[in-house]
Write a structure and sequence with these properties.
This protein is an all-alpha fold and 499 residues long. The protein is 64% helix and 0% strand. Helix 11 runs antiparallel to helix 12. Binds to mitochondrial small subunit 15S rRNA.
Length: 499
């Protein structure tokens, strides 16, 4: 059993036994080396009776490994380095490790191996390989460089998983501690180190740790770069720290970084979503950014428990500027000043539509999808259709009131007109979905929201037609709740109507 990595805080930062190292490869090279004199008993592959007899014959031969075999495996490994393919290299390296030939590799060979692994696909298997290489380097007294530490921090920080967890941040910080404790040679973190850690903390939704890392970087005299500010900006926007976003934007403008960072559709969409999300919040406590910003800046005090609607106006201005930019020629827009808004994309319209639906402005949201977006040749997302369909759903607590309104003699006419209008809007949205399909195909949520909305507004015929079409043509599987409701509807509908 090999010694566990002393620097690993949590799995998978651990060492491997020879048996585990062997399990990472199925190359025939391992079996070939096992047939060499003196190498019996190391193969984990089940042997037939004939193979066992051959191994017994080899056992009777001298136990020394031929120099030709040693030079052969080393030559193949050196040629394998040129392929830059870890899946081809690892079987060779694993074989060398099993037969203690890895000790003949030079420092540069190991650093090449680290670079090849770092460029490979971000998978758990390759993470285990990278950790094993790092352990071997330390066992052979090959000091890790700053770039090696930066690589491993990025990998253990959740690069191999779709969603980062707090343990990934813990693992990355453990490697930072190991790097700072290294004495021969002494290694100091750089801006890449802190950017990697700040990104991991932001992805883990740990804004406080991201802020502490930012302060630590400044305390060491390391200047933050564009990536640092962008990461912090997105992190604060995700956490809803609107005042923090405002402060960060102001800092970028003072440093002259807004020309490259803020003039992009992705950044404007992030700011747009952040400002719209703040429209219903109340301001009663200081933001977390007060602990991060160290410059003397005055923040507007708008009082306690008051809805801050200044951000809604700012977001509306940004949205219309991005839509106006669609009328400009892209080449001419690049030649304009940096104050010009970037061009809107489908996500821009989706963010604005979410705002309209929160403001109970569904008619405007429908016009946005059916009129404004086609006029600018912007294709809607399936999420936009899903949210519009969902806005027509009648909640259970509203259902009784809805029925009372329909049966009331004084309001029956107005209610009937409203229901007809809503049925017409649903039909228009469904027709648009069929005639102008979005890039993403309909989802089970599309099926659920559309059919239930049609049934809520008593458009049974279209509900059944849409159900059959989406299930057969789009191969969507309905949930049991929807099936149960449709079964009840079919029982109540006359057979002649179904035909």
């Amino acid at each position: 059993m090999r010694r566990c990595l002393r620097y690993a805080a949590t799995p998978p930062c651990r060492a491997y036994t020879k048996q585990q190292r062997r399990s990472l490869t199925t190359s025939p090279m391992v079996r070939w080396m096992d047939t060499l004199p003196g190498n019996q008993g190391t193969s984990t592959t089940p042997s037939t009776l004939q193979q066992q007899q051959q191994q017994q014959q080899h056992h009777d031969r001298p136990s020394s490994t031929p120099a030709m075999a040693t030079s052969g495996i080393l030559s193949q490994f050196y040629r394998g380095l040129a392929t830059q393919n870890i899946d081809q290299l690892w079987p060779l390296y694993s074989t060398m490790y099993q037969h203690h030939l890895h000790t003949r590799l030079t420092r540069n060979n190991y650093r090449q191996l680290v670079q090849v692994t770092a460029r490979s696909a971000k998978t758990q298997r390759n993470l285990h390989r990278l950790l094993a290489i790092m352990e071997d380097m330390q066992t052979l007294s090959i000091p890790l460089r700053l770039s090696d530490y930066n690589i491993i921090m990025k990998w253990v920080g959740g690069a191999t998983v779709p969603e980062r967890r707090p343990r990934h941040l813990t693992d990355a910080l453990a490697w930072l501690s190991t790097m700072e404790q290294q004495t021969s040679p002494v290694i100091e973190p750089n801006v890449v180190t802190y950017n990697t850690l700040i990104h991991v903390a932001s992805q883990a939704n740990d804004i406080l740790t991201a802020q502490r890392l930012y302060h630590a970087m400044l305390a060491k005299g390391i200047d933050a770069d564009a990536y640092t500010y962008t990461t912090l900006l997105h992190s604060m926007a995700t956490m809803g720290d609107v005042e923090g976003v405002q402060e960060m934007v102001a800092r970028l403008q003072r440093k002259g970084l807004d020309t490259t960072l803020l003039h992009s559709t992705v950044t404007w969409n992030m700011l747009l979503d952040c400002y719209y999300s703040a429209e219903s919040t109340t301001i009663s406590t200081p933001t977390t950014t007060e602990s991060m910003m160290d410059e003397d800046e005055d923040v507007m005090d708008i009082g306690e428990d008051k809805v801050d609607d200044r951000y809604q106006s700012k977001a509306d201005t940004m949205f219309h500027a991005m839509v106006d930019a669609l009328r400009d020629d892209p080449q001419q827009q690049q030649q304009q000043t940096v104050t010009t808004a970037p061009r809107a994309d489908p996500i821009t319209f989706q963010i604005h539509m979410d705002h309209l639906l929160r403001q109970q402005q569904r008619d405007d949201a429908i016009r946005l999808l059916l009129d404004t977006m086609p006029r600018h040749s912007i294709q809607p997302t399936i999420t936009m259709y899903n949210k519009l369909f969902a806005s027509f759903l009648i909640k259970e607590e509203e259902e009784d009131d809805h029925e009372d309104i329909i049966t009331s003699t004084t309001t029956s006419t107005a209610s009937s007109q409203q229901q007809q209008q809503q049925q017409q809007q649903l039909r228009q949205l469904y027709t648009s979905l069929l005639q102008h399909p979005p890039q993403q195909p309909p989802t089970p949520e599309t099926l659920y929201t559309l059919i239930n909305a049609l049934l809520d507004h008593h458009d049974t015929t279209l509900a059944l037609e849409a159900f059959v079409h989406l299930c057969q043509e789009k191969q969507l599987a309905p949930c049991q709740e929807l099936l149960d409701r449709l079964s009840g509807v079919i029982q109540d509908v006359p057979s002649s109507s179904i035909d």
